[in-house]
Amino acid sequence: MHKTRLAVLIMAAGALAACGESSTLQVSDGTGPSPKLPEPNKTLIPTVNIAPAVGWPDGAKPQAAAGTQVGAFAGGLDHPRWLYVLPNGDVLVAETNAPPKPDDSKGIRGWVMEKVMGRAGAGVPSPNRITLLRDADHDGVAETRTVFLENLNSPFGMTLVGNDLYVADSDKLLRFPYQPGETAIKAPGTKVIDLPGGPLNHHWTKNVVASKDGSKLYVSVGSNSNVGENGLEAEQGRAAIWEVDRASGTQRIFASGLRNPNGMAWEPQSGKLWTAVNERDEIGSDLVPDYITSVKDGGFYGWPFSYYGQHVDVRVTPQDPDLVAKAIAPDYAVGPHTASLGLTFAEGNTLPAQFSHGAFIGQHGSWNRKPHSGYKVIFVPFEGGKPKGQPVDVLTGFLNSDEKAMGRPVGVVIDQQGGLLVADDVGNKVWRVSAVK
Fold it and tell me: What sign does the CA torsion over 51, 434, 131, 196 have?
């Protein structure tokens, strides 16, 4: 590598100063059913614009939308990322971070990214547990907290079918016996299937949801690279949503070409599966918009060969024109580099009327865009089972006046009382948004 480039990369990793190009469009330009997609702007070094993680000062909290209020449902957690509400109202929170993945940090690029993620608050060891939070008096604050499951391997998604609780670890799907009301599970988990993991495990988060009848499980598996630079052999079974038959344990690829699908939820009117997807980096602050989309059985969504349908990514060689010709454009863009992770639909919430039909999305926030994008929770209105109109900010104010991250929203879910719960893995809290009374 040329010495000048190496020196710049080391400077980016050490000082972590903002570098590279800047956006020429607004985040709103990369939002909606037909986002603007400028020409790629691949620079000698990628844009690095980190919001260093600092946590919340005492008494501080995000800003809630008009007609709503926000308070801490639980604090003092350890990197809370994902949420699940049990039928009795208990809330499960996955306290988790990346597993050891030594091959992911090899080389100059890997070393730089390791420093970047550490600065952004993602470098802490994984607690590897799921904690149960109980708000028995329904005052919007959990007064009981117990370790529900421990000694996991970077757990993320959770779903309950009957008395079977499924947990998606970073390398396998597990099943645990659950009895209503219990505050801890001591029984060992049973492995249902292995999931792609190992020493190279770039996008490690795995989510799981169940079909409405409980017969199928859907597991999201992110790519093992940005755009296939580790070789397509490292991408087997990745950048995809798997379908698992509960009775037999057999699995198949339900949809593919999804770079890093995280949130999954069933749209209540159409009954379709939707997912929130992180798109690729390093071709400019305005590319590529992250998105939410309905997921078609057998559908291919472009990664790594193309983005937003059939826009070819020339960095990927060899190309696959036949596959690109089949690439499905997503339904709705949610802004470039917003790191949109959490996804839940509005069904059952008691927030103001404008939030009655649509999707809440937790945007973890950018590192590859200048200026920053994401770092908030938004609501996308739906009509007739499809997005309609512009997003509405639900929670903002996660960045302070110095552009440092006091918090970063991740998982979102509607609780039993109709409030919106938001996991904040930098602030180490679960926030609750409710209507102003």
Answer: negative
Closest CA to 79 of 411, 414, 432: 411
| CATH architecture entry for 3-435 | 6 Propeller (2.120)
Amino acid at 366: S
DSSP state of 356: S
Domain boundaries, the chain: 3-435
pLDDT tens per residue across span 369-413: 999 999 999 999 999 999 999 999 999 999 999 999 999 999 999
- CA–CA distances in Å: residue 133 to residues 247, 279, 409: 31, 33, 18
Is 266:288 a contact under the CB 8 Å cutoff?
Answer: no
Taking the CA of residue 124 as centre, how many other CA atoms within 13 Å lie in the half-sphere pointing to its CB?
17
3-state SS assignment for residue 131: strand
81: Cβ contacts below 8 Å, ≥ 6 apart: 94, 95, 96, 97, 156, 205, 410, 411, 423, 425
Contact 240, 262 (CB under 8 A): no
Distance of alpha carbon 412 from alpha carbon 406, whole angstroms: 18
* Exposure on the CB side of residue 40, measured as CA atoms within 13 A: 17
pLDDT digits (tens, 9 = 90+) for 122-156: 667 999 999 999 999 999 999 999 999 999 999 99
pLDDT for 122 equals: 63
